[in-house]
């Protein structure tokens, strides 16, 4: 179950794959998972102002599959955010490369990102904040409003569309930020501890909503969390990271099936995974 | 009595008390008019200024200098602040000169401006511009730099163009600091305009004050102090109101 090369490189990608037609692609997807992006020996070294360097990420190799829910767990400071920011193109690589199946994202609507803390534009109402990406992408206003409202309803903020960010609680703001990241249906959604600030009940609800949205949109999700339970509940696969230098120490395919609901929390296999992951985090 | 009525009472009572004390002092000690005129003399001078119409050309002149100086100065301050805020490398080059220019007392520069630009309107506007320019520039730089790192990341994720990022994110985020600069600049513009009129020319509120002072028309001088103060407050309030309207999200 632990890290091995075979799990990482579960598919050998033919070079002409991008030229394959849609039908062939779908056929392939039925049998093997399609690699959406491959991180190939990616490293990140930060240089501090004193000239010292911090190796935030040792050579890290990881395939991210089309349509999967992949969680990253690991102790604080092990490079989870760094890896996510690299995937998002927010951080330059110090070494290695990212190979995207259809080429690196070029459109703003390709990637969704939810930051560790809610990042909203304080002068815009909640509705305008959620519609912001659609405005940037020149979606007609009516359609934009419709989609933003539907998304707000989904995250339970339907009654707050006219409110300003400062008038909402931290958890509500984070839900608005999540709605903004999902409203344009990005191919890959990168989430950095998005539910860390939510109470347990809301967190459970948001988990289910997230799975529902994911099933609807078919987006690929890479999800950073501190909660083992959350990771096990949501994920198809879980990557365990360890610190100093940051690296992936284990990668697991959770055999809990694609359908997740509260019932799964009573499944013995679920408990088994919790204890496995907990041990590996130590 | 509620706190608000009490506060209102104070707001009315304090100036009345001050005027009363002023009046009592002048009458009891028989102070000469050219040293300290009684309040009623100042008031009737004020009324005369407006009813006879003497004040209007002067007021119009001063307001004109303020508006022109403020407009040109804040446009230039914004433009340079924008360049420096967006490209810190430029700041490293021109920063020291700007700092030198700013620390030089503008009042000392005023005679130089008169020498260069003559006794007319131009030198007055130049002096006002020189006072308005700096606070607006600093406000613009601070505003653009105050955009949180995460907002820059958001723009990078959504791949906003430079122009779009500026219009949709950076400028709105900078508005509070820019307005802080504009408000300081508005007060400076008023001071600058009156100061310039003090030094040269035959019109304007500043000129009227010099005239009143040198001819010992002390009631007129006091009336002018009142008028210029009120003008300063009006200019400041106009900006504060615009700010309040623009920044209702704060
Ligand atoms: N901009 C930076 N400059 C220098 N060092 C950095 C920078 N960002 C992160 N680091 C370092 O890189 C390492 C990984 O940081 P990162 O934020 O990726 O950790 P993390 O796993 O997300 O932690 P947490 O769970 O606390 O959010 C840390 O040791 C951190 O000190
Ligand atoms: Mg982090």
Model description:
- By secondary structure, chain A is α/β, with parallel strands linked by helices.
- Chain A has two domains: 8-105 and 187-282, Rossmann fold (3-Layer(aba) Sandwich), CATH 3.40.50; 112-185, no CATH class.
- Helix content of chain A is 35%, strand content 23%.
- Chain A has helices spanning 5-8, 22-31, 80-87, 126-136, 141-154, 170-182, 200-217, 228-234, 268-281; strands at residues 35-47, 53-65, 69-73, 95-100, 111-114, 188-192, 220-224, 237-242, 247-253.
- In chain A, the strands form two sheets. Chain A has a six-stranded mixed β-sheet with strand order 5-6-7-3-8-9, with helices on both faces.
- Chain A starts with a helix and ends with a helix.
- Residues 1-29 of chain A have low confidence and may be disordered.
- Chain B has 250 residues and is an all-alpha fold.
- Chain B has a domain at 50-147 and 173-246: MetI-like (MetI-like fold, Orthogonal Bundle), CATH 1.10.3720.
- In chain B, helix 2 (39-51) crosses helix 10 (218-246).
- Adenosine-5'-triphosphate binds next to strand 2 and helix 3 of chain A.
- Adenosine-5'-triphosphate binds at residues 46, 48, 54, 56, 76-82, 246 of chain A.
Question: Which features would summarize this protein structure in a list?
Answer:
heterodimer, A: 282 residues, alpha/beta, Rossmann fold, 2 domains, six-stranded mixed beta sheet, three-stranded antiparallel beta sheet, B: 250 residues, mainly alpha, MetI-like fold, 10 helices, binds adenosine-5'-triphosphate, binds magnesium ion
Number of helices of chain A: 9
Helix and strand pattern of chain A: HHEEEHEEHHHEHEHEEH
Percent of residues in β-strands of chain A: 15-25%
**SS elements, strand count of chain A:** 9
User: How many angstroms does the end-to-end distance of chain A come to?
Assistant: 17 Å
Per CATH, the superfamily of the largest domain in chain A is: P-loop containing nucleotide triphosphate hydrolases
Helix content of chain B: over 70%
> Assembly type of the shown chains?
heterodimer
- Low-pLDDT segments of chain B: none
* CATH architect. name of one domain in chain B: Orthogonal Bundle
Helix/sheet category of chain B: mainly alpha
| Strand/helix succession of chain B | HHHHHHHHHH
CATH homology-level superfamily of one domain in chain B: MetI-like
Number of domains of chain A: 2
Strand order of the largest sheet of chain A: 5-6-7-3-8-9
Proportion of strand residues of chain B: under 5%
């Amino acid at each position: 179950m632990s890290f091995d090369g075979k799990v990482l490189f579960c598919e050998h990608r033919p070079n002409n794959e991008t030229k394959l037609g849609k039908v062939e692609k779908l056929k392939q997807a039925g049998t093997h998972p399609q690699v959406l992006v491959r991180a190939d020996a990616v490293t990140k070294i930060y240089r501090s102002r004193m000239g010292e360097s911090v190796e935030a990420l040792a050579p890290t190799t990881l395939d991210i599959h089309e349509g999967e829910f992949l969680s990253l767990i690991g102790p604080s400071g092990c490079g989870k955010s760094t890896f996510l920011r690299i995937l998002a193109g927010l951080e330059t690589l110090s070494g290695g490369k990212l190979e995207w199946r259809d080429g690196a994202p070029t459109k703003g609507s390709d990637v969704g990102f939810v930051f560790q803390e809610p990042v909203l534009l304080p002068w815009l109402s909640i509705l305008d904040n959620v519609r912001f990406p659609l405005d940037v992408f020149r979606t007609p206003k009516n359609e934009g409003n419709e989609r933003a409202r539907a998304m707000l309803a989904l995250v339970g903020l339907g009654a707050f569309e006219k409110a300003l960010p400062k008038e909402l609680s931290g958890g509500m703001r984070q839900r608005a930020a999540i709605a903004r990241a999902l409203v344009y249906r990005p191919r890959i959604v990168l989430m950095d501890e998005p539910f860390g600030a939510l109470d347990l009940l809301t967190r459970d609800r948001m988990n289910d909503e997230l799975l529902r949205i994911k099933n609807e949109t078919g987006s690929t999700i890479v999800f950073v969390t501190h909660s083992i339970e959350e990771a096990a509940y949501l994920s198809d696969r879980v990557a365990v990271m360890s610190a100093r230098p940051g690296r992936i120490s284990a990668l697991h395919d959770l055999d809990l099936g694609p359908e997740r609901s509260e019932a799964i929390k009573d499944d013995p296999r679920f408990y088994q995974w919790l204890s496995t992951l907990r041990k590996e985090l130590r | 009595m509620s706190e608000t009525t009490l506060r209102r009472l104070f707001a009315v009572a304090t100036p009345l008390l001050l005027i009363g004390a002023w009046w009592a002092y002048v009458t009891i000690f028989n102070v000469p008019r050219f040293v300290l005129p009684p309040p009623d003399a100042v008031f009737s001078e004020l009324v005369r200024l407006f009813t006879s119409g003497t004040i209007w050309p002067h007021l119009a002149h001063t307001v004109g200098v303020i508006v022109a100086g403020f407009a040109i100065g804040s446009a230039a301050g914004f433009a340079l602040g924008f360049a420096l805020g967006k490209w810190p490398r430029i700041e490293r080059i021109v920063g020291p000169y700007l700092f030198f220019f700013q620390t030089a007392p503008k009042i000392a520069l005023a005679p130089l401006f008169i020498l260069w630009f003559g006794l007319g309107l131009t030198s007055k506007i130049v002096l006002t511009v020189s006072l308005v320019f700096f606070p607006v520039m600093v406000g613009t730089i601070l505003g653009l730099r105050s955009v949180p790192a995460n907002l820059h990341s958001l723009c990078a994720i959504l791949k906003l163009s430079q122009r779009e990022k500026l219009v949709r994110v950076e400028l709105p985020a900078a508005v509070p600091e820019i307005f802080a600069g504009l408000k300081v600049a508005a007060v400076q513009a008023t001071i600058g305009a009156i100061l310039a009129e003090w030094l040269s020319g035959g019109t304007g509120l500043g000129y009227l004050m010099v005239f009143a002072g040198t001819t010992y028309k002390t009631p007129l001088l006091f009336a002018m102090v009142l008028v210029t103060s009120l003008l300063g407050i009006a200019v400041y309030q106009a900006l504060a109101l615009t700010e309040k309207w623009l920044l209702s999200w704060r």
